[in-house]
Amino acid sequence: MVDTHGAGPALRQSSETPARTASGYGMLVLMLVALVVLVFSATQLKVQPWAPWVLIASVLVFTFVSIGFYLLQPNQAVVITLFGDYKGTDRTTGLRWTWPWMTKKKLSVRANNIISERIKVNDLRGNPIEMAAQVVWRVTDSAQALFDVDDYKSFVVVQIEAAVRTIGSRYPYDDFEHQEVTLRGNHDQVGGELRTELIARLRVAGITVDECGFTHLAYAQEIAGAMLRRQQAQAVVAARQTLVEGAVGMVEMALDQLSAKNVVELDDERRAAMVSNLMVVLCGERDTQPIVNAGSLYQ
Asked: Do 250 and 212 have their domain in common?
C-alpha cells in the first residue's frame, strides 16, 4: 500500500486469521506406526530384499511427521509463517501438527501486569510531580503484535510512559476548593482516561488494556515541602472560614432569640459587645474563662 500524499510507503496493518492445522493425536498414531514398521524392516534387512526400501520410507515418514508437532497450552497462540509469509494463527490447545516447512512462533495471550517506573511530569499548573502506573494488558491480535511493531513488550512499556505523561499534564495535581478534576481527587475518572489513552496507543500492536491505575502520585521532592506548607495554609484558611461562618450564624440566632423572647433589651453598643464576646468564645482556639461583671457595661 502506497501513501497518496507522497510521503512514501505506508504501514500495512496485519490482521489475525485462523491457521489450517491438524490435531496432533492422529499424526502421533501415524508416527508410531512408522516407528513399528521401521523396527520391523530393520530386523528383515538380511532376509527380505524389500526391507531396505521400507526402512528408508519409514524413516522419512517418521522424521517428516515428528518435525510438525507443537504443543499449545491454554491462552497461548502460535503464529505460522511460510518463508516469511503469514499463514495464520492457531489458538487450539493440546497437541497440534502442521507441515514441517512451516515456521512456528509461540506467544502468550494471557493477561500481563506491569508497573511502570516513576517518572517526573509537569501537571496542568506546571508543578513537577512524580507518577507511576500499574497496567494489566494482553495480546488480542497476534499478527499485529508480531508483525506491526518490532518488539511488542518494549512497545507497551514506552507507550505506558507516554500515556502517563499525557494524562499527568492534562490535570492539576490538587485543587483544595474541589472546583475542577484533579489527579489526586478523581482517581476513577483519571484512571479511566488513562485506560482509554492506552487502548488507543496500543491498538496498532494488537494489544488491549483490561485495567490500569496509578501506584504512585506525589509532588516532586524539590517542591514537596513548599506544597505541603501551602496545603496546610489552605486547610487552616478553609477551617477558619467554616468556623467563622458557623459562629456568625450562632450569634445571629442568639440575638434573634433574645429579642424575640424579650429576655433583655440591647442597644447598639450592648449588641456590639455581645457579638464581640460571642465571636471570641466561638472562634477562640483555647477554652474561655468566664468573668462576672457586677457593674454595668458603662462602668
From this structure: no
How much is the pLDDT for 177?
61
pLDDT (tens digit per residue) in 13-23: 888 899 999 88
166 found inside a domain: yes
Boundary-marking domain end, from 52, 79, 108: 108
Number of CB atoms found within 10 A of residue 209's CB: 22
Paired with 128 in beta bridges are: 122
pLDDT digits (tens, 9 = 90+) for 91-150: 999 999 999 999 999 999 999 999 999 999 888 888 888 899 999 999 999 999 999 999
Q: Where are the beta strands (DSSP E) in 61-206?
A: 69-72, 76-82, 85-90, 94-97, 103-108, 112-115, 119-122, 128-139
Amino acid at 285: E
* Residue 16 counted as domain residue: no
Binned at pLDDT 50, 70 and 90, residue 174 comes out as confident
Q: Which three cell numbers stand for residue 91?
A: 489458538
* Among candidate residues 108, 139, 166, the one where a domain is terminated: 108
Same domain as 137, residue 84:
no
pTM over cut 0.85: no
For residue 143, what are the domain limits?
112-219
- Inter-CA distances, 268 with 206, 255, 262, Å: 78, 12, 16
Q: Quick check: is 279 in a domain?
A: yes
Instruction: Give the containing element (helix H, strand E) for 293.
Output: none
290 domain residue, yes or no: no
